[in-house]
Amino acid sequence: MPRRETEAIILRTYPLKEADKIVSFFSRAWGKTRGVAAGARKLKNRFGAALEPLSHVRLWYFERETRELVSIDSAELIRSYFDIQSDYATGLACAYISEVCEQTLPEREPNEHLFRLVVLALEHLRQTGRIWPALTYFDLWAVRLAGLLPSVERCVACGSALAPDAEAYFQLYPAGLNCARCRLDGAWELSAESRQMAREMLRASLPHLAPRAWSRETGADLRRFLGQRIEAHIERKLVTRSALESVE
Amino acid sequence: MPDYAEPITRLIQQLKRLPSVGQKSAERMAFHILNNWSKEETGVLAEALLDMKEKIGYCSVCNNITDVDPCQYCSDPTRNPKLVCVVQQPHNIVAVERTRQYDGAYHVLMGALSPLSGVGPDQLKIKGLLERMKAGVIEEIILATNPNVEGEATAVYLSKLLKPLGVRVSRIAMGIPVGGDLDYGSFTSRACRQDVSAASQAV
Q1: Region of residue A48 (left: phi > 0; alpha: psi -120 to 50; beta: else)
Q2: Which residue has better confidence, A42 or B49?
């Protein structure tokens, strides 16, 4: 029964029995894992605030080959995101990040790039309090890292290059962008500005993006395009995505 | 697969639906009732279950579970109606009452903001609280939601909603409990430092 030590992001917890928790965490070294934290719901417990959602922690746990759930021994906070989640909009953004990781990550498959992306998005939320740039950047890179991002430069139907200022359209199936000539019925438009934003986000890191006046409308079409890719992949709706649409 | 007689199997299946009750516990309970309880005692249990489902409802004022409307806390003339303690679930009222330090009224939200579970402000019983505020009696609201992410988000959301209405809004303290010993606090962990710094802060 090896004792493992890893950096991790707590994705979600579920109550178990009288005072325990099932913890789903995204481990830097071993990927998404689930474990039992015994006594974690007691007032006096050895985990403190370390098992709150999206806490960046150092975890120690035991693993048995025959058991799906690991046994969490102890946790120490590296960075807490408890305070930023007390604001409803930021909390919703954090919950969205958590849900996307929980739904898209395969079990026990390390993903260093996504781990760094999650930490980057959370830090940006903490420092700026602005949810839309962080979520747009997170969505774009999460979709790309999962291998689900179609080209934003070419029409998926005829293969012609999309000019930077040309109209582009997207739909649920087939995945990808269509030019105005190949546009399908009921397709949504992805504006030239949003495509430019996507190009910029694929080149530059989140803190180094060109300053913009962000609002819910900024990049909304891009987020819809990316959100559809995630939902098509997991074959279900994201609970937090619809809630985000009501946030100003 | 070998099985018990149908009535026992049926009871075991029903008991297994209770939280924290698995096959073994359900079997133990079923056989305890079968072997040790008289028919009358079993009838009392069945009657109590039915009685609870038939008589228990929600208080029209505070959403507490009750068999009389308004509930015992809302109709008690000795309690202070200017003070309202907001809790997540009806059973939280019992926890606050156990302290024997509180004599105000209550309001039950029936949950906490939890985007991952699909619970937003519209799913909580906030409208009823705002209706109570309109009467102008309430002077202070104590937010006694759980000290976790969901509870904290709910408390901050409510405080932003209630403060402009001119009431004092406070939050239950978090940190080292009375009777605890500082020597046993894990001050090397940031979690504990955060708990300490958050203690007694108003929202």
Answers
A1: left
A2: B49
